[in-house]
Amino acid sequence: MPEKEFIKLLGDLGTDRLRIRLRTERGQLADIVVQYEAFIRDEWVAVVRYDTSHGYPHRDVLHPNGAKDKHFLSFPDLKAFLQYAEQDLRDRWEWYRERFLKEVNG
Predict the structure, then answer these.
(1) How far apart are CA 26 and CA 94, in angstroms?
(2) Which of the 8 DSSP states describes residue 59?
(3) Are the C-beta atoms of residues 41 and 29 closer than 8 Å to each other?
(4) What is the pTM of this model?
(5) What are the domain boundaries of the chain?
């Protein structure tokens, strides 16, 4: 069960990143985490996470108070889910950050 984890920076300021963790079994994707993290108030905070825990693909939209909104998703395979997750976060990270900061700042 090889596992790989890596970081991809978003934007030009170094305050936003994707954390990607992939686990394979017999050469096939078995578990995926694609998480958008923002550097807010001197710490890295998870803002949105796509993963396959609980046995199915879903997106968790996280809130500063610890709550999360879970959205179950359907994909033909985990490769398609991985591509969708990464592309959504690359396209919308600024919007996710703004939403999160509005909640932080009240």
Answers:
(1) 36
(2) E
(3) no
(4) 0.93
(5) 3-105
